[in-house]
Amino acid sequence: MGTLFIILQVLASVVLIALILLQTTKSEQSGSTSGMGWGTIGGKSTSSIRTRWGFEEHLNRITMWVAIAFIATSLFAAIIRLRQG
User: d(Cα 57, Cα 63) in Å, to the nearest integer?
Assistant: First the structure.
């Protein structure tokens, strides 16, 4: 049972790293090197304000759930490992 949680933890960590690498920074969204460019309002680009759910919002939500899964599998693996002695 502990091996299953360790495998799930490794999978979640690899997916989490990939999702974080796919996300863009605020300076990449604005299109300028200064960080907050003309295309941003309060840190969000105007193109993401026009759409209801853009790619970045979906990516953020998926990243959040994968991070929660990583934390949960880490806790369960630690609990199982402690009970086995």
Answer: 10
